[in-house]
Amino acid sequence: MKKALISVYSKEDIVEFAKSLIEKGYEIISTGGTFKILTNNSVKVINVSDLTGSPEMIEGRVKTLHPKIFAGILAKRDNEKHINELKENNINPIDIVVCNLYPFYKSAYKMHLPEDEVLENIDIGGVSLIRAAAKNYKDVIVVTDADDYNLVISNMDEDGNIPREIKKNLAKKAFNYTAIYDSLIVNYFGNEILPDNFIIGLKKTFDVRYGENPHQRAAIYKDIFNNQTSYFTSEQLHGKQLSFNNIMDLEVAKNIVIEFDKPSCAIVKHANPCGVGISNNIFDAYKLSYISDPISAYGSIVALNRKLDIETASEIKSNFVEVVVAPDFEDEAFKILSTKKNIRLIKYNDIYNSKRELIMKSIPGGMLIQEDDMIFEDDKIWKVVTEREPTDKEWNAMKFAWRVAKHVKSNAIVLTSNSRTIGIGAGQMSRIDSCELAIKKAGAVGSYTGGTAMASDGFFPFRDSIDMASKAGITCVIQPGGSIRDKEIIDACNEHNITMLFTGIRHFKH
After folding, report:
1. Is 135 one of the catalytic residues?
2. Does the annotation count 507 as an active-site position?
3. Of 19, 82, 135, 173, which one is the catalytic site residue?
4. Of 350, 8, 358, which Cα lies nearest the Cα of 187?
């Protein structure tokens, strides 16, 4: 009679599966809690201790770790020597291993239990059973997921076998299961940002229709190590599934608005902001961000760092917007926007706690990994390097421009008042071209009399951008500094009566 070893933490559907295996001619072997629930449900079961002749030991830490179990699993059925050794030692082959593991993820990452309790949830015997059965998949069926119980039974012939290809797929799934399990443990013990061996644990959330372009396949995966607020904890309230590009732009927009304590709005297209505004209320913040570049705002992503109200929803509805992201939506505001069939509404809970720690970019054969550019900058250490000191309005305008510039693709030039972007030059190969683009976007930039700021994500290599800025009415500049021509740049600012700050920090973005 064929043998099935069942040892599961999650008892979902296990009674029905065990009964189905018995109907297919299997004898059930089990342990601990699984043995108890099966016997309580009138399933005939052999206790593993009766099979091995050894009791469970050291508070259940040792149950199945025994030659009579592992030899029965690992023996090759077409190897005469293996079969003879089993007979000589009175060991029966085990043909199915059904096993899932202690809830390490739940104890370590969700419940945040003390370390001693977390250690008790590191499964030893279960992992060993799964790996042994998966290694010998040609002869042994390994089942680690209750969703596969029906697959096994429905494909089982009268001899209790299933097709080899299904066995192989189940083995692959089992190795994946134990690999992820081990990676969770490694990550729990590790606190290095950039360790020598970097383990990534990702679980597919869903397939998107396509990637950046229709000919590219794509899916979105969740980092299993990360339980913080993120897109994966957000809630889509309305609209069709987000696209690959939607999600990319959503994250850029969200990262901008959480830079500010005041109500703020960011409008993003193709991973660059086309408008950012801050105010004392979210309606004005949206209006300020929209007028920054209304042409580019067509078909954009709108992110807010405050609850969406009726007034703002009505204003957004009058424009073509792909996605609206906010910490919450007033009921009436939701009703207003949900009348638009194709708009997506995303409730991003606890939005200020959604900062990522690392940025990963794949390259052929490997990965580039860096800390996210979320450094805290104390503006008290910024240096005024020109003869003229900035006014309070200019200081605030530069501070605002600098926070936006870090989210713009390099080379980045951002022109702002102290409450909204006026012109953004993004992604140009030379800084002077970015400066020219920002000024072109700004139009009559000199008409703002409260001090117009220019932020540059990197230093100015030549004075040409300063000369151009002066002609456009820019009165204050903020940049990292660090060029061999810093003195030339400072002299140009003094000539034009422009005040300038050096931050000492660069914000390239690729």
Report:
1. yes
2. no
3. 135
4. 358
